[in-house]
Amino acid sequence: MDIREAQSAASELLSQAKAQGATAVELHLGEFSFKAEFAPPVFAVPAAAAAPAPLAAPQPAPAAEEPAAPAIEGTPVPSPIVGTYYSSPSPEDEPFVTVGQEVKKGDVLCIVEAMKMLNEIQSPCDGKVARIYLQNGELVEYGQTVMVIQ
User: Fold this and answer.
1) 26 forms bridges with which residues in the sheet?
2) Same structural domain for residues 140 and 80?
3) Which end of the chain is more exposed for a tag (fewer CB within 10 A), N or C?
């Protein structure tokens, strides 16, 4: 085995060992020996900024007389993953559903893209789309209600 073959083999083995979480590796390939130690990954943690001390006790704000939005009854449709909400299969196409549209259990309501994978969200029940909470292209969180079916 010449030095180039040994270096190539050692490089491949060291890469695999590091990928599997090894902290040190010692290799003996014929007349060649290699030893490597890997430092554990260092993650920077941002320091929390200290909040300034209040000078005086805060006074409660007067309650605003704002009418509450009427609660929409029905079955909420949550996002099963974090990703980007799309109302249609492509920008040129019509949305899968619109408010007021009748849907059947299993109908595709929208798509959530996560890591270049398009995940269809299907209707959990028969009914009518009562409200859609997101706009096309908006980010959606896990468990966030996408729409409500009545």
Assistant:
1) 35
2) yes
3) N
The boundaries of the domain holding residue 9 are 3-37
The candidate with the shortest Cα–Cα distance to 144, out of 75, 81, 70, is: 81
Q: CA 145, CA 92: separation in Å to the nearest integer? A: 25
Cα 132 from Cα 148, distance rounded (Å):
7
The residue to which tokens 């966030």 are assigned? 144
From first to last of its 150 residues, the chain has per-residue pLDDT tens of 677 777 777 777 777 777 777 777 777 777 777 677 766 655 555 655 555 655 655 565 555 444 445 567 889 999 999 999 999 988 899 999 999 999 999 999 999 998 888 899 999 999 999 999 999 999 999 999 999 999
Q: Is residue 102 part of a domain?
A: yes
């559903």: which residue's tokens? 97
